[in-house]
Amino acid sequence: MRDLWTDLRYAARTLARSPGFTAAAALTLALGIGANAAVWSVVHAVLLRPLPYPHSERLVLLWETAPEVPRSSFSGPDFLDYRERLARQDRRGPFAGLAAFVASGVQLDSENGPERVRGCTASEGFFQILGARPALGRTFLAEDHRPGAPPVIVLTDGLWRRRFGADPRIVGKALPVNGRSAIVVGVLPPGFRFSIPGFLNPVEVWTPLALIPGGDRGGRSLRVLGRLRPGVAQAAAREELAATAALLARQYPATNDGVGARLVPLHEQIAGASRRALLVLLAAVGLVLLTACANVANLLLARAAARRREIAVRSALGAGRWRLLSQLLAESLLLAALGGALGLLFAAWGLDLLVPLGGAELPRADEIGFDAATLAFTVGAVLLTALLFGLVPAFHVARQGPGEGLRDGERGGSGVGRQRARRTLAIAEVALALVLSTGAGLLIRSFLGLLDTRPGFEPRGVLTAAVSLPKWKYREGPAQAAAVAELLARVSALPGVRAAGAIDDLPLDGDRDANSYTFEGKTDVKNMPSAEVRSITPGYFAAMRIPLRAGRPFTAADAAKAPPVAIVNQALARASFPGVDPVGRRLSFDGKQWLEVVGVAGDVRDLALDAPPEPEIYLPHAQVPSPRMTLAIAGGTGLAAAVRQEARAVDRDLVVVRAQPMTEVIGAALAERRFHVLLLGLFAAAAFALAAIGVYGVISSGVAERTREIGIRVALGAGRGDVLRMVLGQGAALAAAGVAIGTAAALAASRLLAGLLYGVGASDPATFAAAALLLAGVALLASLLPAARASRLDPVRALKEE
To answer: What is the pTM of this model?
Structure first.
């Protein structure tokens, strides 16, 4: 420890005497370490950190499955049967508890007007499964879940503070909720947060769910949360799920034949599709750190030329090889520590930019930040980088004998071994930069392809406004249809509006559940096809400019008592009516009520821009009303305030939940991809810059060490062009070697990106060629300055100095 302290003090004095070198090396390391710390914070929060619930590794979500529907919600009776068999009170089932829940809109009323918040209706035991204990009051009791029980609610801490000023007397108060009075029975603790999968906003109000045995098994709307018993493996729980699903299929073949069940860990469900992209970013930022280490190693090797006499003298005075090595590694450790401290500052600033760029789609974004794990990761990165960039120069210098060092010092030293090591590091930098730039190029091309993808509608000039009808006022379908129709009539009369319509689920704006259907002529009743079902008003296709390929659109004549009709999209027409005109055909969801197909609409990319259009069935809102609709208003992008005013004119309790241009909806759908592309592009640019600096340093130091040789060549008749070509040839050789190695590495690494690409292959030749040419050009430009300096060398002056 005494020797280490001595080495560190001497290293600090040595680095202080070379402020330019120290600043360059520390900033280079800060770039690599800071980028790694920032991305690690995101990866740790999203993928690695346990969920904020006790023993969260035992929390799972259950889904029902069918051949055409890999993920479906549960019906009430199915859930009760699963709970009875798998979460038994005698502790013989694999689950300690199962609870059903469903998203619900909650409207809070006050003197300032109504406010719509995200709600969740949950069955008995939900909070116990999550391990949530209230900060005030209580959660739900068994009697709260009985049909006809007095309405009660539980608030989250955030809503309690924001809307009620953290009033501790809130428990026991009656609040106007959804048009009737509900008693607040509890407030959850500040750290509690729950978001329903498929919905971005966290739940703020909880209401009890009452389940009645013997209900409809065909209506699947409940999501199921479970907690495994201690010691029960997921594989065992899956076997029990499969056995229960098979039993229900035998007991209720009409609704459950072919229906299975699957288990997904809650952490995995929340991380979702972000896992692969974040791991790719972590690998990319690791390459940036390796490039930075190679760059600093190059700087240390260049600095070693000036310290060869010093090291030789220390060796001659009795310093052993290990003592010299420890001294040089102490300098590397001090440099890495300085870079790590600066890197933490860079990471803190970077996170303030990263998290908003990730958009609302980035899961657990509110949990991203510095913690003990990030600090430990940074310390580990500092130690690792100190070894990575310090070992090669330290071994190279420490292995030289004192006689050799003093002789080289007298002559200026050729430094053949040192130059070989520097060229190797420069080649590694070029190769790493090529791997990053190729990955960034593939993602950029994929993202540009997404931007050019036609979604099936025209988003420009369309304002969307999500409206929610209070269910306590509009319980019946005709009242819901009449209110939406009146609002659309008012909005259509606003100045500048060309067309207006409404749909229950806007494209690219949320989760979807498919519905099974059949059609006339289908004989296989077991394998039912599925389609997304939409409720729309007349004018929706015109507002969104969705083309009608055949038949007619909906009109006011398609009223509630008119014959039931439907419009299908081209994807459904191809799947269910190949080679046949679907107009005039009939389809059904239950085999009892049949709907006549009156039109075929163009395909819309409803789930994601990179997902193919799914089969869709459009139904008239007047025949299938919904209290939750989103208006699409063509030509009214600046009319958000006017739309809210018209909604209040229809009904004071009619709330416009969100109003935004359709282009912003598409932008939000692409936010996570834009986040990944931007980060990988920045990392590739940093690697480009570091590779260029590395090549420049190698060529520049080579010119300096070959001054005598170049002077002699010029004295013997070599022209400026000859010298220029010779030096540029060295840079070209470095670039060629780095590009060759980097291309092979990029071909292997690009397979990791296959699932993130759209419209471009993982080994796209154009992208690989462009990245290689660009990087080779950058390397040659980095060689041009020392080459030009060498070509202007005065041979007489060079030989005198030598």
So the answer is: 0.78
